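Aim 2, interim progress: modelling of the magnesium ion-bound target.
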Amino acid sequence: MNRTDPPPPQHRRLTDRVVRPSDRPEVSFVGIPVSPGVAIGPVFGTAEPEPEILRQKIQAADAPAEGARLDAAIAQSRKQLLKLKVRLSALPEDSQTELAPLIEAYLAMLSASRLIRGARRRIADGLVSAEAAVLGEATEIAGAIIGQALPGTSAEDRAGMRRRADEVHEIARRLVRNLTRAPFQSFAGLPEGAVLICEALRPADAALLDPARLAGVAAEEGGADGHTAVMLRALGVPAVLGVPGLPGRLRSGDIAVIDGGTGTVILNPSPSNLATARRAVSAFARERQRFARLRRLPAETLDGTAVELAANLELPLELPLIQQSGAQGIGLLRTEFMFMNRETVPDEDTQTEAYRTVIDAMGGATVTFRVLDWGGEKEIEALSAAGLVPELADTNPALGLRGIRLLLRQTDLFETQLAAILRASAAGPARVMLPMVTTLSEVKAAREIYDRVVRRLRRRGERLPDKLPPLGIMIETPGAALSADALALEADFFAIGTNDLTAYTLAVDRGEAAVASLYDPLHPAVLRLVQFSVEAALRMHRPVSVCGEMAGDPRLIGLLLGLGLRSFSMNAAAIPRVKQAIRNLRIEECVRFARRVMEQADPRAIAALIDASK
Ligand code: PEP
Ligand code: MG
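Predicted structure of the complex, ligand included:
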């Protein structure tokens, strides 16, 4: 590393923390590794804030609607618990024996239990809101359970009563969380160097984490390429998601080791495991420093083929890391950050300012702005509050009003964002990219709106660049991939989003731990769609890149080069690793390798070829 280069900021903290071994028994878990690096630290996690209930009383006429809200929350809670139940099978047997009856007890309380019956009565007769009814009834039931204790009741029986009362409170809290849509955790007060452990982390919550203070993250829910995983990788925070049973095993004062490369989480590691983890932390830091030396070297194969390596940006705080990574631009700027964690939708000037800051920071390298991709798991309160989007409780949000579909309905939202990007593009090169395209007509409609916004800005006398930003599309649905030849007529460029492409091709939710083993970008169906899209783009002389998580995996870069790709966008931390892989490859060999891969019908055979090529 050049002496003047500071080490990547978010990794400094991991090495200088002193954590003493705990005297509690060690417990290990295995989850899905989502963001590399090893973290050691005190656990921050279990304390959950009491949900804030804004509405206590209701009108008699509203009682049926309130009952329906309760029904929806029961259904949602049941779904969450059933998911958890499925995932129990991945746990060691003794953990299963401990957790399974608990989940059954929760599920039973969601049926025609005293809690539910009582809550319904409170809504209908007491005219209180569903959340007030649930909490009121739970408090009464728990009080009655504890009140059964008599002077002669044994300590063991008393403990059993407390446990049952806690279970009632716990299921009531889950219902209220689902009624109020409160996030599962409050991360305020997260101590420096802590390991965050929680049930679920929404992408919007991950966006609020401070990578300089946080050692690592582990959560019970989540999958490898869900947006929370993407966000954690972008922040460079070691993380493991989809760890069943983990939050339930926490006790205050626990310490944890998280290995985001292997997916292991150890609570209260033994002195020898703690020492191993410390060595891993140092080795990871040394590796980062080694990679930092690659920054100024070109991304070029052994036979001199230049490859473009750009960065994905989810949050402005990634900009310094992107600048340090040697990225040749931003190949995917997920503009969702502009809309998250705020009460109102940002206006044109606010957005222009934010986009200009990124363009300025990139000093002449191209920034690809992907317009708002709302939907799926990307819940954005400001849009709900403004009535711009339907309730997320849609039966199937991933197949609903996502990405470009929403923007073509909410044209004011779309036009405001396009105007902001166009105005910002006067400061430096930019591209505009449409998410979740499935048909040619969407691209045509978007282009008409784009042209209209350009004309309006010109009439207003706004300064625009002579060469307007190209308007391209994400290829992230099988529909788009299979009509890539037609789409190339309307789109100025393609960026292949392998995350959604994999999810939609294989019908696997990308953020869902229970089906994580089926989520496989190396499935031949996904690779054939990538190949078809690349060939269509090259035939039509349209620039094409990959900006899904696949691009950041150095093991896959040879295959992608062999399929004809020369441009990739990834989380900034992955750039040096991918660059190093490229500098050891020859295009001719990559083409031969890709041919062999594309002959395979079995994803396992493809995985074996990739493993053997390391
Ligand atoms: C993708 O789907 O591959 C992609 C890059 O978009 P996002 O991860 O934001 O959905
Ligand atoms: Mg996508």
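The CA atoms of residues 155 and 340 lie 49 Å apart. Confidence is low (pLDDT under 50) at residues 1-16.
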